[in-house]
Every structure is written in structure tokens, then in C-alpha cells.
Amino acid sequence: MHTPHVVVLMGVAGTGKTTIGPLLAAQLGVPYAEGDDFHPPANIAKMSSGTPLTDDDRWPWLDAIGSWAHGRAGLGGVVSSSALKRSYRDRLRAAAPGVVFVHLTGSRELIEGRMAQRQGHFMPTALLDSQFATLQPLGPDEAGVDVDVAGTPAEITARAVEALRAYGPPTEGGSRLPRLLPQ
After folding, report:
1. Cβ atoms 176, 168 nearer than 8 A
2. Between β-strands 6-10 and 77-80, what pairing exists: parallel, antiparallel or unpaired?
3. Which domains are assigned to the chain?
4. Which residue, 14, 40, 73, 97, could crosslink 111 as a Cys pair with Cβ 3.0–4.6 Å?
5. pLDDT tens-digit readout, 137-155
6. Cα(50)–Cα(126) distance, rounded to whole angstroms?
7. pTM to 2 decimal places
């Protein structure tokens, strides 16, 4: 299976973007880019110290992700980005208008438990509350799907593929475009 769409895997820290991203990319037959790799060192230092990023901190990071997505337009790809606010997703869409979002969702308790088990990641569990406070879920007019992160990585990836297969993004008139993946 191959998709010409660029999929942005979004959600709060700890939802599994880094784990699910490569698995989803493999299922879709496209390359994967780790969103954290687009952060400048100052952003990583700030988050490592337990300080949430500001919008001004995020703009260059989002622009770098948007540039990657733009370069993959028509070729397909999967990239991770928290994309917590509508304005962040709007910025990504401005750079790469055809992007589709897969919002990884789950309970705070589940996500906190997973974050507590990770080793060597710069994002501390203490910032999870700020992530949930910032999160603006996908709107009905945004191209994307929600996928629950309960279960194994293989189960989550399978749900994401099925959700993308069943979904046709909205047009300006409210109708749906053709499905993103073949049946």
C-alpha cells in the first residue's frame, strides 16, 4: 500500500508518536520523519529543564516540519508533531496544504504511565499537564482522524490505517474527498 498524502501524527507527549510513526509509515509505504529532530537545540534545552515552549519557540520548528511535508507532497510521508493547537496545524497546512492529521488520543493516566516508563527522552512527565491544557482537538473541518492509543503498537497502527482507509477529508463545501487509502 502507498499513499501520496503526508500524514502528521499528532498528540500530547507520551501518546506514542515516535513508536507509531515508523510503523505507520511502513504500512503506508512512505518515509518517516521524527518531529523531535526538527527542534532547535534551544527548544530541547527548554523542555528538558521542565519549561513549556511558547508559540514563538514553536514557529521555527513547525516551519521546518512544514517544509519537510511540502517536499513530500504527492510522494507521501509520515511525520510526527504534537500539533496541539489549531494555529499550529494551520501553519503546517499553509506549508503543505494536503496534510492529513492522525490524532493519537488516550487518557491522562495511560499516557502518564507510558511517559514514566520511557528512558532518555527530553520531555519530562511534569509537562504533561501543560500539553493537555494546550491541546485543541481536531475540528470537524480539519482533515484528520482520532485514534485511541490503548493497546499494543501493532493494534494502534492497525487502527490508524483503518481510520485513514475509512476517511475522506472534508472539502470547503462540506462534502468528502475520495478515501485516503485503498480499501
Report:
1. yes
2. parallel
3. 6-74+83-166 (3.40.50.300)
4. 14
5. 999 889 999 999 999 999 9
6. 7
7. 0.84
